[in-house]
């Protein structure tokens, strides 16, 4: 994988299988698994912004899960931020996840801890020890997402858009080279979604690649970028501007 590539998938097929990352061979998992996608071939470079679109159940989340090793890659070649997905062992998964940021639609925040504590918890859990550095980094990410005045707010005291910003701040704590976002604007009103999109574009411009699934083609129209379409078990790149122009 070239130094600038953060994702490289070659002739990949993706299966949902029971007990991934265990002792069973890939062949055995493939035999008992359910095929979701095949012939997947694409790469993403540092700083790129990529949309994933497709109907409900077309495999967008499953592909994202494969990239952060929630689903095991059983067929083809796959490399994410320097980790070979075919050779990945269960114990290596936390190290891969420290190099990527993950943003879900359901925020998965610690509801009994404030903004600062939500971030502090993650930093301690990912090996940061020096208090001053932890505080500095928390200040930096909160500033980046525009929540610098909200350190002591509880999650329930934040709006949906602010909660999503906090999730993005959390994903950025370890300076990832890749941000994976699964329908991050799905629960947000159009104006708030717009703010989140602009934040993602700023993040991409800083050099961190952003891969985001969405059902919202208005966003693509407004913020054009590379687009991968999931259809009939395959993934193909499309010229979205040409496509939207014809509608
Ligand atoms: N844990 C699982 N075990 C087996 N099959 C699964 C599992 N999770 C999802 N699937 C199947 O994988 C296929 C792809 O689902 P996936 O959630 O990746 O689609 P999606 O494109 O993200 O959909 P949506 O737009 O609704 O989020 C579906 O047929 C789904 O039923």
From TrEMBL:
The lineage of its organism: Bacteria, Pseudomonadati, Bacteroidota, Bacteroidia, Bacteroidales. The keyword Metal-binding does not apply. Residues 7-247 form the ABC transporter domain. Belongs to the ABC transporter superfamily. Coiled coil: none annotated. InterPro entries: AAA+_ATPase (IPR003593), ABC_transporter-like_ATP-bd (IPR003439), ABC_transporter-like_CS (IPR017871), ABC_transpr_LolD-like (IPR015854), P-loop_NTPase (IPR027417). Keywords: ATP-binding, Nucleotide-binding. Part of the ABC transporter FtsEX involved in cellular division. Important for assembly or stability of the septal ring. It comes from Alistipes communis. GO terms for cellular component: plasma membrane. This is Cell division ATP-binding protein FtsE. One of its GO terms (molecular function) is transmembrane transporter activity. The keyword RNA-binding does not apply. SUPFAM superfamilies: P-loop containing nucleoside triphosphate hydrolases.
């Amino acid at each position: 994988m070239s130094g600038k590539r953060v994702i490289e998938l070659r002739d990949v097929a993706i299966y949902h299988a029971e007990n991934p990352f265990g002792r069973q061979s890939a062949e055995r998992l493939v035999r008992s698994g359910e095929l979701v996608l095949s012939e997947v071939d694409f790469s993403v470079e540092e700083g790129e912004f990529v949309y994933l679109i497709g109907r409900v159940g077309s495999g967008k989340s499953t592909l994202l899960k494969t990239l952060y090793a929630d689903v095991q890659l059983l067929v083809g070649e796959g490399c994410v931020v320097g980790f070979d997905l075919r050779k990945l062992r269960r114990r290596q998964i936390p190290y891969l996840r420290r190099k990527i940021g993950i943003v879900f639609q359901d925020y998965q925040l610690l509801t009994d801890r404030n903004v600062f504590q939500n971030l502090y918890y993650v930093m301690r859990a990912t090996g940061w020890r020096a208090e001053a550095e932890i505080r500095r980094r928390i200040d930096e990410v909160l500033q980046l997402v525009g929540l610098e005045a909200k350190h002591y707010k509880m999650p329930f005291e934040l709006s949906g858009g602010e909660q999503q910003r906090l999730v993005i701040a959390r994903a950025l704590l370890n300076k990832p080279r890749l941000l994976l976002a699964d329908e991050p604007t799905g629960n947000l009103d159009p104006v708030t979604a717009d703010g989140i999109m602009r934040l993602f574009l700023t993040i991409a411009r800083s050099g961190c690649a952003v891969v985001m699934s969405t059902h919202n083609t208005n966003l693509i129209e407004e913020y054009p970028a590379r687009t991968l379409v999931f259809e009939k078990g395959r993934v193909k790149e499309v010229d979205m501007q040409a496509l939207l122009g014809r509608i």
